[in-house]
Amino acid sequence: MNKKRNIFVTAMAVMLAAVFFACKEPVPVTGVTLDKTALTLTPGDTSVLKATVDPENATVQTVTWSAEPAGVVTLKAEGNGCAVTAVKTGTATVTVTTADGVKTAQCEVSIVDAYEIINSDFVKAVDTQCGWTKKSDDTVEMTPENQEAARAVTKLDISFQELTDISGIKWFSGLTNLKCSYNQLTSLDVSANTALETLYCDSNQLTSLDVSVNMALEDLSCNNNLLRSLDVSANTALEDLYCDDNQLTELNVSANTALRYLACDNNQLTELDMSANTVLLGLWCGNQTSDGGTPLILHLNEDQKTTWENEWKSAYPNDQNVVLAQ
Fold first, then answer.
1. Residue 261: exposed, middle, or buried by beta-carbon count in 10 A (0-12, 13-18, 19+)?
2. Rg (CA), the chain
3. Contact, 93 vs 106, CB < 8 A?
4. Which residues pair with 198 in a beta bridge?
5. Which of 42, 56, 83, 309 could form a disulfide with 76 if both were Cys (CB 3.0 to 4.6 A apart)?
6. Percent of the chain having pLDDT more than 70?
7. What is the Cα–Cα distance from 216 to 193, expressed in whole angstroms?
């Protein structure tokens, strides 16, 4: 009798568990991401894309793959991965789509006759910080493997290398910290480095700097260059800005409400409004004209005026040539 009772109890437990799991609410898919959003291949090359469905406990994990236009690449899916093989030169967009919720993510694929070659000077500068494979002449061919090695680098310091060209930086899309100070750069393109939080490019020969897509940027040092303009309106996370010793004629930091420190002295500014920067801890803005001519008109809020008189003003010699706006 006890044996029968045990069997009965076990059967009931199994039935209750089945009912519980049958009634459990399904977890919907909220999104999908790819491990690569851009690829460069040559005809015949294959690279594998991996999709991650969010959240990780979503009930339906199934995805499908497609490519447009047809004929540029072929796809071979296996689970949530897909092997992309280049067929001919051109460009294609590979799209992954979730079965639940129709969420999508895309990877732009460029198929070229030959891989871009990165110059040896830049290669030597990053050699100890990037695990890519070099050629015998110390250049690097940007094969899928070398692209992946570059993307994996998050911090890069190539200062004091006498570099004139670091255009290869575009392959380092995972960078959060880039230091390229004290080189001989006349141009710098960081449009592919959208994850940047810290950028030190001071003491070069830059005549322009575009950081409009670097919205994660918190620390920017571009002092001691030849900049005539600097737009930081998109950099709302910016906390530290050092743009002194340039040729700036205007500077608008009204959108940078997280700004803690600003050094913009030794430029050609005639007016500066800091009244919106309520968490400011340090300000250096004097000596805008070498001949002591037109003074800088400085706009401060009431709290800042007190700090100016007691702290910030003392950071300059007597010839600072700054006048508070009334």
1. middle
2. 28
3. yes
4. 177, 219
5. 83
6. 90
7. 10
